[in-house]
Structure formats: structure tokens, C-alpha cells
Amino acid sequence: MNKTLDKIASALAFIIGAMAVFAGGKVLLGTLPDYYVIDWLPTYNFIMGMVSIFFSSVVIWKNNKLAMPAAIGTFGIHAIVMLILQAAYREVVAPDSIVAMTVRLVIWAVIIILLIVQQRKSK
Questions:
Q1: How many folded domains does the chain comprise?
Q2: Which of these, 40, 25, 27, 35, lies nearest to 81 by C-alpha position?
Q3: pLDDT at position 2
Q4: How far apart are CA 22 and CA 24, in angstroms?
């Protein structure tokens, strides 16, 4: 069972990362949505998506000792960015950006829960 949990967590990390790369990459390549885009947010989305795909999902898949720190770190960074968006950009941030960040936070919370359950089952 615990082998399955790390694979599910890894797949979630890969998928949420790919979504961020796709969304951020489109904007970086010039396909702008119908709303105002905060200058640094597409770059952030693209970079964190790449980190999720090529680092976090891999260490989680391999059940590496860095899996939990990577998941907690990724969640923490997203939480900090969400706080920045809500505090400093509240009047200009697009609702779509808040929804996307909320989805990321929820998925990373699920990943952390899966890793915790996996660790408990392994003991």
C-alpha cells in the first residue's frame, strides 16, 4: 500500500507542476489572458512547475529522504506567494490566479498527507 501512496503523491506533484509550466509558459511565450497579469507571476509559476516536475515528483517517486522536505517546502513557498498576492496585490490579482494558487495549495497539502500516511504505514 505505501508504495502506491508515494506513486500517487508523485503523480500529483508531476501533474500540478505540468499545469503550472503550461499556464506560466503560455504567458511567457506571449499568449496573454483576458485579465491583468502580475509581471512576475508567470515566471514564478513556470519555475515552480519545473521544480515540481523535475525535482519534487522525482524524490517523492523514489521515496527519497528529501520527499517530505520537498513537499513541505513547495507548499510553504506557494503559501508565501498566496499571502503576498492577498496582501500586496489584492486589488489587481486576477481571480483565476487566486483559484490556481488555491488548487496548488490543496494538492500539495494532499501530497503531504499522503507522505505522512506512507511514513506511518512504513513503521
A1: 1
A2: 40
A3: 53
A4: 6
